[in-house]
Design goal:
Elements (H helix, E strand, L loop, with lengths): L4 E9 L5 H11 L3 E13 L2 E7 L2 H12 L6 E4 L5 H14 L4 E3 L17 H8 L5 E2 L3 H8 L7 H12 L6 E3 L8 E7 L4 E7 L9 H14 L4 H17 L21
Parallel strand pairs: 1-2, 1-4, 4-5, 5-6
Antiparallel strand pairs: 2-3, 7-8, 8-9
Helix pairs in contact: 1-7, 2-3, 3-4, 5-6, 7-8
Length: 266
Amino acid sequence: MTTPTALTIAGSDSSGGAGIQADLKTFAALGVYGASVIAALTAQNTRGVTGIHAVPAEFVTAQIDAVFSDLDIGAVKIGMVGQADSIDAIAAALSRWTPRHIVLDPVMVATSGDRLLASEAVDALHTRLMPLASVITPNLPEAAALLGEPVAVSEAEIEAQGRRLLALGCGAVLIKGGHGKGAESIDYLVTSGHTTALAAPRVATRNTHGTGCSLSSAVAAGLAKGEDLELAVRNAKAWISAAIAASDRFTVGHGHGPIHHFHKFY
């Protein structure tokens, strides 16, 4: 039996709470072997991003080819890609290797508010990566930014934005409700057939660094294990909610601390 294996293509977080590091922790916590392709390096901690160093596009390609030529990748998660030529390289390589599932987290801004995607790369994200994605996982501000619209505030507006994002070519849209208001954090899974609302109690904590990265990785982990999309999203939502609820066991850094990826174990 082949070991469930997932690949993250994303940026590295030097403080360990988001990006590649969060993705690999998520895969491990959910029983999936994780491989990684680093598209960018960040100088980052819980208080913010102080520097970004892009990995040359040809080396991004080399990493992807090295992984796919040897490992049986069940799902790919794409996070911070930084610049347009990296997006082109990733799209070209994935079109050659045709993985079964691609989860695209359109990372534009860090939890701290720092911009992580060059403005000229947004068009490349639209045209090259979104049509390849099985599901995209924007938060409310990212969904609005992808469409050039105001942030949705009602369920009807969120579903409408999800439908407009679907029209850009992706297979499904999971709009995350962490930036919303109210006692519950509600995510919306929008597919061609229907919209599913997934609610969980909103947790009052400053430790939210890496939540978006980790949720998309949890979805990828589920898909790598053979779950269908709705089950993978439901399991990911339950896991990330528990990881946020357990995050105050940590005292790490002086800003937005990390979630507890391994809350089931310690």
